[in-house]
Design brief:
The protein has 223 residues and is α/β, with parallel strands linked by helices. 45% of the residues lie in helices and 16% in strands. The chain has a six-stranded parallel β-sheet, with helices on both faces. Strands 2-3 form a two-stranded antiparallel ribbon.
Length: 223
Amino acid sequence: MSVALPAGVPRPRAILFDWDNTLVDNWVTITAALNVTFAAFDKPAWSLAETKQRVRGSMRESFPATFGDRWEEAGAIFYRSFKERHLETLTAMPGAGELLAALKARDIYLGVVSNKHGAFLRSEAAHLGWERYFGRLVGAADAPRDKPAREPVDLALGPAGLARSAEVWFIGDADIDLECAHNAGCTPVLLHPEKLPPEALARHPPALQVPGCKELLALLAEP
């Protein structure tokens, strides 16, 4: 997939990234922790593919629909299981570290808006040695509402003193990231290696799609 900057899309002054499946891969442990939780409530397990397809919202948004008024109990089981292995299995997406270093060197403000719990998000960034790249890493429960609401975007941009605008790119791999970008008035960028069906992008279309971190770096390196 060749990529060029579309006419009318401004170059970014700031970039806010999603975390899982955008900059890092930790789906094996997410799936395992979910299945430990499902087993405790006699619910069927998910495959890795199902987890990648279904996990979008934060826990406080998604768990009540699955576990009802016992969702906080389920959340405690999930977090206990996830905490045991998440740093051990964490891996960077191809080219992610090089991308972040290059963008930081060009004085582009960087932040993260994720629906992973903020404490886990920041511990993963520290484990990778990436916390120095970001002005702020915003996870679930850090803002009054979680992604796709715009409050986490405001929180992530706070240290830069920047307002939400088209010069802020929001980059992620899923429809919820594009929805958040539209809600916040930022430029929505889909980071995904496959061409998705038009109906999947109809409500919140991306301004551009990039296959991966290496291609994004090449695009932004162009004059």
